[in-house]
Amino acid sequence: MKILYVIRKRENRHWAKRLQRWVTGFTDGQDGFFEASLHYGTDVTRRTFEEVMAMGRDQLARFDAIVVNAKSGFPWREPEVAAKIIRGWGRPAALFLGSARPQDMAPDGVCDQFDILFKREPFADLDRYDISATNKAKMVTTLLSNQLVNMSWRFKHRNDSFVPAQFGYETPKFVDVFFLGKVSHVRLDNRVAAWTKVKEQLGDLNCIGGLSPNDESPVPDHLRGEIMPKPDYLKTLLETRINLALSGIGPFTHRHLELFYAGAFALSNNDIEPLWLRAPVVKGQDYAAFDTEDEMIDMIRYYIAHDAEREAIAKNGRACFERLYDVPAHSVELRDALQKVIR
Fold first, then answer.
1. How far apart (Å, rounded) are the C-alpha atoms in residues 277 and 324?
2. Please, which residues bridge with residue 267 across strands?
3. Distance CA 149, CA 322 (A)
4. Which of 133, 146, 227, 245 could bridge 268 with an S-S bond, Cβ 3.0-4.6 Å?
5. How far is 241 from 172, CA to CA, in rounded Å?
6. Tens-of-pLDDT digits for all 343 residues of the chain?
7. Phi-psi sector, 184: left (phi>0), alpha (psi -120 to 50), beta
8. Which of 263, 270, 244 is nearest to 255 (CA)?
């Protein structure tokens, strides 16, 4: 199966980072898991939106289908423009919506033009989307990437360079509470509120980490934390009893996958359950969750005092990761969806 993949715009990245990405084929950021799975299961040609728009219909006819990253520059919010482009291509087409926000969806008029809608962590209740039943039936769930696992689309394997020698549920603990995450004007309040509560009410515990500004958003000095190199970050996850997974732009974050991968205990905001993930992630079994910051403090103290319960959840989280983050299995899901629409 020959797929033309319209890639995400990355002009703002440093040229050295873009060159490294191209040479190694490593997929990272938000789109890594989807891209690795697409490459694993199909014969993919990667092109920018501008390059695809310059292709003639005879060139496009060499591909069985076109997969469009919504962040490529394609006008995925403009029905009339999108319709004209898709008709001009004359090929089966899929839209990949890699936004972290589950509520983000193309308008009905754009969805009408595509045969498949690949959506990252959508709502399980598809009626929350203001699109037709026909377009809801086009949806296929996918997942963000785990940044501790590099995937190479050139060599079709994953590089477990950061796989721990021991998982978190096996590792001696030296830290009570750890969170390290970025904040910006769009994801500041809940993380600031949670970490403020930790600093104010858990002074008797060893709590490390903090918040790192992703832009010019102010972060008080007592809440700041410095980003760690990956090996140091992973070591800290493993040696921590309670790792916080606080919502960012979306409810399901890199942090959740990193904790599951490490077999480390995850205490999360209670906003994952409404999501349609490609494998079940069960609250109270694979992770613990809170509704308010006060409940978070109570749960931290509870799980600090109950080692066996905490370690059982961490172990389940690692098993959950193996089910959830399976590139060969997801490649079959993507390929099967594409096969159904190829004429």
1. 8
2. 244, 288
3. 12
4. 245
5. 9
6. 999 999 988 766 666 666 666 655 656 568 989 998 999 999 999 999 999 999 999 999 999 999 999 999 999 999 999 999 999 999 999 999 999 999 999 999 999 999 999 999 999 999 999 999 999 999 999 999 998 887 666 656 655 666 778 999 999 999 999 999 988 776 678 999 999 999 999 999 999 999 988 767 778 888 999 889 989 999 999 999 999 999 999 999 999 999 999 999 999 999 999 999 999 999 999 999 999 999 999 999 999 999 999 999 999 999 999 999 999 999 999 999 999 999 7
7. beta
8. 244
- Sequence length of the chain is 343
SS3 of the chain: the string is CEEEEECCCCCCCCHHHHHHHHHHCEECHHHHHHHHHHHHHCEEEEECHHHHHCCCHHHHCCCCEEEEEHHHCCCCCCHHHHHHHHHHHCCCEEEEECCCCCCCCCCHHHHCCCCEEEEECCECCHHHCCCCHHHHCCEEEECCCCCCCEEECCCCEEECCCCCCCCHHHCCCCEEEEEEEEECCCCCHHHHHHHHHHHHHCCCCCEEEEEEECCCCCCCHHHECCCCCHHHHHHHHHCEEEEEECCCCCCCCHHHHHHHHHCCCEEEECCCCCECCCCCCCECCCEEEECCHHHHHHHHHHHHHCHHHHHHHHHHHHHHHHHHCCHHHHHHHHHHHHHHHCC
Is CATH 1.40.20.10 correct for 168-325?
A: no
Integer Cα distance of 266 and 261 in angstroms: 11
Q: Give CATH 3.40.50.2000 domain extents, the chain.
A: 168-325
What is the C-alpha to C-alpha distance for residues 111 and 286, in angstroms, rounded to an integer?
Answer: 34
Residue 319 φ/ψ, nearest 5 degrees: -65, -35
What does the block give as tokens for 238? 């493993």
Structure-token match 């995937």, residue found: 151
Stated pTM of the model: 0.92
The structure tokens listed for 54 are: 């310059």
- Residue of 9, 24, 262 lying closest to 151 (CA atoms): 24
